[in-house]
Amino acid sequence: xxxxxxxxxxxxxxxxxxxxxxxxxxxxxxxxxxxxxxxxxxxxxxxxxxxxxxxxxxxxxxxxxxxxxxxxxxxxxxxxxxxxxxxxxxxxxxxxxxxxxxxxxxxxxxxxxxxxxxxxxxxxxxxxxxxxxxxxxxxxxxxxxxxxxxxxxxxxxxxxxxxxxxxxxxxxxxxxxxxxxxxxxxxxxxxxxxxxxxxxxxxxxxxxxxxxxxxxxxxxxxxxxxxxxxxxxxxxxxxxxxxxxxxxxxxxxxxxxxxxxxxxxxxxxxxxxxxxxxxxxxxxxxxxxxxxxxxxxxxxxxxxxxxxxxxxxxxxxxxxxxxxxxxxxxxxxxxxxxxxxxxxxxxxxxxxxxxxxxxx
Length: 360
Fold this sequence. Notes:
The chain has about 350 residues and is an alpha+beta fold. It has 3 domains: about 200 residues, no CATH class; about 60 residues, no CATH class; about 90 residues, no CATH class. About 20% of the residues lie in helices and about 30% in strands. A hairpin with a 3-residue loop joins β8 and β9.
């Protein structure tokens, strides 16, 4: 009881580490009168960003967010949730803001830079920058496709979800690359590995499914929450009531096609056909690259014509996030257009001769 009283009456904040590379900070809220004098404090009062940036403690006022960012190079991001469906991201670079809304059954996000430079680094990507600059609302599926190879992949959805629980911290702190918050690592001065960060290294991990009825297919990304619905669908159990979505891994084409339609065709390769063959650009795990595959329509046998489209076309290697989309098949020649994944056209087309199996 004495420890609880001390926590309730003495401390103004408490920090808990979540994963090794992230920490949750709970701050005693403050209420003020019209002259900005603190009239009451309490753990049931959630502090706003305005309060955190002018927090009264020890007879002075402190910008808690700025103090944390300046305190250590190991603090990479400080994230807050000042109001429902609104999230702020702070770093030494600047401040970004995430807004969330529901449009029917679709979750949408908007991301803007409020001050300085983009703390998540998305604005450096020419495929993403226009949406940030204009404050465009994009679906959750569009944002993950745009950001899954950025330094903070799928950052908007993951940051929003981290505040979803009513018992979540008032601030979520993400460590800088190479830093860790876990005390036993700090005590040993050894960092052999970590987890809990939003960064690419802690976020991209492979997962493989194997068994009867599983097709040979590769997808560029998925989410941890997609594993359970995929397993449920594999065993014929409806997955509508759980988070995530089933991945189209099934040898039953009708089943995989139905799943892709439900996901907005996120993973559906576009197909061009002639009398004998179908041609697809297959996804490659954790890459904007594609494989060009020819499928025998009579036997369903698949033949890889181009193992790496990016390696075959120098203009695609010059910018990491440009890919191809098939347009037409005429006279044995495939025409592709260049574009950002699922987004605006870059301009220009390329042709592939199916007889010589070369790009022209």
